[in-house]
Amino acid sequence: MKIEIALTLFGKEIFIPETIVNTWIIVILLSIFAIYVNKKIKNAKIDEKPSGLLNVIELLVEGVQSLVESTMGADKLKFAPYIGTLALYLLVANLFGLLGFKPPTSDYNVTFGLALITFVLTQYYGLKSKGLGGYIKGFFEPMPLLFPLNIIGEIANPISLSFRLFGNILSGVIIMGLMYGALGYFSILVTPVFHAYFDVFAGVIQTFIFIMLTMVFVSMAME
Asked: Which residue spans traverse the membrane (predicted)?
């Protein structure tokens, strides 16, 4: 399913690509879900054990907090809301192909934008925790000759992070598109197995890898 929007504004045609449209669909769906869950939490009774959806949400929140604590340390639980939001968005975006839409993460602009957020967080908290002197000194360790390599390594982190996610998701989209084109009506007999791998398995794995590397980069910068 392909959704693109063309608008005419002040005599000029503005084209909104499929990636932007699908991203906003995901954002709207997740926002509605968050509002619904928030309403359920407010109406829940404190003295009663959570059940149904609230029980699942509690398990997810505890899981994210446990992952952040084990990866970054108990003193960095403030990153749990961001990591949870990032994981939820990436998971839905990567699985969007199951509904017939193009996954936003198959567009490099999206993955690079997310990687830039991780890069900014890494540099900001590295500077904040070490101070300006310690931050600059880190580029000259363990020896001054490695300064150029340390700079290249910092710049390479968001590039490698974005390309890893983009490449895996895009390859799945291309392969599935070729299979549908080659098999035609018979694709329904074969493609479910490949959807399970390229959309579900690869989507979940790439989500986990992205958030893990985000936590590792930020925590290493703060040490």
From this structure: 20-37, 79-102, 108-127, 165-188, 200-222
